[in-house]
Amino acid sequence: MIAMIPHTHHAMRSRILALSLALVTAPAVAQRSAPPVHPLGPVFRVSAPGLVSTVAAVRTLPGGRLLVNDLVGRRIVLFDSTLASATTVVDSSGSTGTMFGARVAGLIPFRGDSTLFVEPSSLSMLVIDPVGKVARVMAAPRPQDIIYLIGGPFGTPVFDSAGHLIYRGATRMTPPAMTGGTQTMTQPDSAPIVRVDLATRKLDTVAFYRILQTTVRLTQGDNGTMSMSTKINPLQVLDDWAAFPDGTVAIVRGRDFHVDFIAPDGTHTSAAKIPFDWERLSDSAKAHVVDSTRAVVDSTMARMRERLKGTSGTAQGATSRSAPARGAPTPPLPNVDIVSPEELPDYRPAFVSGAVRADADGKLWIRTSTYVNGGPVYDVVNRKGELTDRVSVPRSRVIAGFGPNGIVYMAVLDGKSARIEEARVR
Questions:
Q1: Domain ranges, residue 417
Q2: Tell me: the pLDDT tens digits for 349-358?
Q3: What percentage of residues in the chain have a pLDDT greater than 70?
Q4: Where are the alpha helices (DSSP H) in 203-257?
Q5: Which of 18, 132, 236, 320 has the smallest CB count inside 10 Å?
Q6: 127 Cβ neighbours under 8 A, 6+ residues apart
Q7: pLDDT digit string (tens) for 168-204?
Q8: 80: domain CATH number?
Q9: How much is the CA Rg of the chain, to the nearest whole Å?
Q10: Residue 116 lies in a domain
C-alpha cells in the first residue's frame, strides 16, 4: 500500500499547478464585431535601471510613489515619484527588520494608503504604512488560503468598502483512488471566490468560477521510490475574475466570453457576450500548440533541475523552500505529459488564466489571445459588461498595475533586471 503524500510532494504538486496555470487557455465560441485596436499611449516615465529584478505587482501611493513586489529579488521596494530611486521595505536578508520568505509573496491594497504584504512562509500579513514602514503583523484569514492571497494566476485580492477581503478560496484534491500501485488525485474544476471579515473571521462564498483541473498520479516503485506524473491540456475551458472596491465581483466566463456581476447584496447580472474575433484551429495549428507546450514544459523542467542540482545529497534535491534537511533524499521532478492534438478544441481561446484585472477607474482589463505587432491586446470592459476599448501593449511588456485617470504601469525585463514604464491609455 502506498503511503499518503508527504510534505515534499505537496511542494511538487504546487510546482505542477504553477506550471499548468502558465500554459492553460480557454475555448471559444461565436463572434460579433469589435471596436478597432489602438496602441497604448506613449510612455512618459521610466524607472532607473538596475533597481529591481522583476515587477510582479505595483501598488500606487499618494504623490506618484510606487510599492513594487520584486519576486525574483525577494524584496518589496518603494519607488519615489520620479521612479529614479527606490528604498527597500522588506528583503530576504532580514536587514530591514522583516523577512521576505523563501516562497512567493503578494501585495494587497489595505485601508487608506496602507498595504498588506502577504508572506505565505510565515502564514502572516504585514501592514506597510504609506511611508513604507512595517506597522504591525496580522494573521492570515485561513492558513489553507494564504497561497491564494498572492494574486497572479489566482486573481487579485481586494478589500471592499466595508473592509471585507475578497479572494479566491482553497480547493481540495479528491481522496486518492488506488489502481494497482498508483494513487490518482484530481483537482476540482471550480474554485470559490470568498469574502471574509478579518475582525470576526466570518467567511461567505460569493460565487464559483472554473479553474484549471489537474490530475496527479503518484506511483511507488519496487525499490520504494516515488514518482509523480501529470498531464496538461493547454486549452482547457477556464473563467477568470476581478473585484471592485465597492464589493462587486466580476467573473469573465471562458466558454462564451461574457461577464457575470455579483453585487455585494448577492444580486447576479449577466452581460452580453463580448465581441471577439475567434480563430479556428486547424489540425496543423493544434499540433503546433502541443509542440510549443512541450517545448515550454521541457525548458521549464530543465531550469528546475538546474536549480535543484546540488542543493541536497541527491542529483535532484529539494530547494530550501521545500526540502527537509540537506542531504535528505527527495522525490524527482514530475513527469509532465501533453494531451494529443485531437483532444484540443477547435478554436483558439479568448484569454488565459490570470488575464483579468480591474483598473483604478472601475473598468475590467482582459488580456486576450489577440496580438498586434508582437504585443497582447487588452479588451477593456465597463461595469455593464460592455466592450468599450481595445488596447495593444508593446511587445515584451505586461501590465503590472494601474493608477488614476488612465495611468498604466508596465513591466519589462531589461537584461538581468527589470524596469517600470508609465503611460496613459491614450
A1: 7-424
A2: 899 889 999 9
A3: 85
A4: none
A5: 320
A6: 110, 114, 115, 116, 117, 134, 135, 136, 137, 138
A7: 999 887 777 777 778 888 888 999 999 999 889 999 9
A8: 2.120.10.30
A9: 22
A10: yes
Q: How far is CA 219 from the centre of its chain?
A: 29
What's the CA gap between 157 and 57, in Å, rounded?
Answer: 12
> What residues contact residue 250 under an 8 Å CB cut-off, 6+ apart?
241, 242, 243, 244, 259, 260, 261, 262, 356, 358, 364, 385
How many C-alpha atoms does 298 have within 13 Å on its Cβ side? 7
Give the DSSP letter string of 3-35.
PPP-HHHHHHHHHHHHHHHHH-B---------P
**Cell of residue 250, nine digits:** 466580476
Q: Is residue 1 domain-resident?
A: no
Q: Does the structure show a pLDDT above 80 at 57? A: yes
266 is a domain residue: yes
The reply to whether 202 falls in a domain is yes
Q: Which residue has the cell 534535491?
A: 317
Q: What residues contact 67, with CB distance under 8 A and at least 6 apart? A: 58, 59, 61, 76, 77, 78, 79, 89, 107, 115, 128, 132
pTM assigned to the model: 0.82
Q: How many domains does the chain have?
A: 1
Using CA atoms of 72, 76, 80, 82 in order, give the dihedral in degrees to the nearest 10.
20
